[in-house]
Target: CinA-like protein
Amino acid sequence: MKAEIITIGDEILIGQIVDTNSAWMGEQLNLHGIEVFQITSVHDQHEHILEALANAEKHADLVLITGGLGPTKDDITKKVLCDYFDCELVLNEQVLANVTERLTKRKVSMNQLNKDQALVPSKCTVLNNSTGTAPGMWFEKNDTLFVSMPGVPFEMKSIMSEEVLPRLAKSGKAKSIYHQTVLVYGIPESMLAEKIEAWETALPDFIKLAYLPSQLMIRLRLSAYGEQMESLQEEVSRQIDQLKLLIPEHIFGYNGDSLAGVTGRLLVKAGATLGIAESCTGGMIAHMFTANAGSSVYLKGGVVAYSNEVKMAILGVKSETLEAHGAVSKEVALEMAQGVQQALHTDYAVATTGIAGPDGGTDEKPVGTVWIAVISKQNIKLERYTFAHNRERNIMRSSQATINLLRQLLLTENPHLA
Amino acid sequence: MKAEIITIGDEILIGQIVDTNSAWMGEQLNLHGIEVFQITSVHDQHEHILEALANAEKHADLVLITGGLGPTKDDITKKVLCDYFDCELVLNEQVLANVTERLTKRKVSMNQLNKDQALVPSKCTVLNNSTGTAPGMWFEKNDTLFVSMPGVPFEMKSIMSEEVLPRLAKSGKAKSIYHQTVLVYGIPESMLAEKIEAWETALPDFIKLAYLPSQLMIRLRLSAYGEQMESLQEEVSRQIDQLKLLIPEHIFGYNGDSLAGVTGRLLVKAGATLGIAESCTGGMIAHMFTANAGSSVYLKGGVVAYSNEVKMAILGVKSETLEAHGAVSKEVALEMAQGVQQALHTDYAVATTGIAGPDGGTDEKPVGTVWIAVISKQNIKLERYTFAHNRERNIMRSSQATINLLRQLLLTENPHLA
Model:
């Protein structure tokens, strides 16, 4: 099955917004075994939209249309669709009921613009919009399916997930699919590929693997295609168990997890508390933990010790240590961690000291050098990294590396949590 | 002049990458007075690309093509272009010299794939790529211009900025343009529009104003079109001076500035130091300052006081104050700021305490409530805000509000810095 995506709206053409809708739809269709062969973004203009529809019909079995359905622009897309499918606008009771219910909930009284949203081309099947007032519309013409949806991303996504994809799957036009994403940290892509090559080659034909690398991790997406959802889930879960045996220390979570979120949950399960001492990461580690709801359960607090004065006054770093080894040293990292652990009375503590850049590097300690200390009441881990990137990425990478070392120490000391 | 953008590459169609190139090109063309009427993304497939080119030629005076020029995919786009323009690949010495120079610098020896990059369709004018090895290519056919560029964003941007836009301006096909962006904080868009309505209406015809609102600020972009760059600059600068008189307290910077960057520069100029005490913002304020190079000049450090224990132990907040007023109160915010000012011996100090959510709200203090204290040695500012958003946005908005209050206090106490 071949698909084309048509997005309607000037905002995309003048670069006011980036078209993330098409990428999301392209990914979803691809996952369901439908090939997208063209994406076309056009002006809010009658003749131009008609031409785009006609061009798409020549090649595509499925045409997904977004945009041009907001209350102010209502007329354009719907009128074009009426023209194209040779029909007229009629009142749809199902849509009117949905609009009425949504407005009543929001205590808004209905005006003419709202009422007009219940007018739809007579030849369409209405698709329910569970998150907004503009309905989805489904048309069939010769052998091509056309679906029109609002351009608001969360409305488009709910209509796609709740209506379009299930209907396509039901009709046998899309494959039914199950996917799980395994989150991997601390191994370069090429080395990962080598380590899991045999496993990858042995995957059954109906499971596809995709490498999705980003700045912070590599996501491995397993997509299983078939009839029986239950057996797909079983097989994917079995394959992930085997993968775990190959790279146990690198898999930190699944799907929407983050390293700080996962590590925070380990701290909660261990009933342990955390203190953070940051120099070069400047508050980023604290931010990564506190971005997650519920972090106050385990996080007592942190100290951003940017100046040596603060390292000494608040964290108790000794002036002799600073003089003998410099601020960027394992000795200072350790005293910072011990200092915050004592001052805040925590079970675990982490500390960073390094050179984020762009200035301050030397031959011995170039920009990107960072010393990380992670300690518990029994153990000490000290690691040096050199992240030779720009300031922003050095801060980000140092923060992630610190959180990962803490995660590893938590798992070593609490193996039942793994 | 009407333009169409054609992007070539499967990555966009399967949603592996979001097409940010087209948004950037659309914005640039729009700024130069060229209307983009369609963006088309197509497969890496010969016939399909030919068809897209022919369709574009029907409507467009300018066709910008990106992608399909990487060394591995080299053949596809260039061969299609040879077909379309009825010519063949020839060796271009200028491109060969550029490729040789770039590889020599990187100490890489040249292979056949590299040499092939110097092969270009005989009917094109080569556009220099100052950041990569694949050249831009400029074709004229009947009344339509075609420009092919690599899809790597920074390579495309440098060819557009250094070659394509200047050539279009020189030929009179694009308008020459000067733009400045004024950064505005702390006023809703509708109120801003009302306040500057008379100024906006009185703008000369050759200056266009665009409102670009985002989560953190409103950017007002002034674009001046005309022949004489110098007089454009003078007039824009004169208009900005008038704008400053209307909303002096809301303009914090220009173009690529950030609130923390601007405020940090004020601290440097004032020769003053800063300490930060954060509860609900959890390290975000410290991160916003330390994201800027050179922040160690003024930032002594910060304390993330997530638990009451830390508020008391490190910041000296009194247990009676916590009991009498609760952690989210102006009294606690003030004691936190005073505590960090004393502990770190700083001139200025800021503190936040609030409920980021999603839990922890009450009728009296709903999620999004935050108390902010900003103090110097002479002055105290205490403000309560209610940001009724999700956790992420509450943290972000509270952090920005705090930095802005500090900026205002700095300007009040050091009027010569304004």
In short: Chain A has three domains: 2-170, 177-254, 259-417.
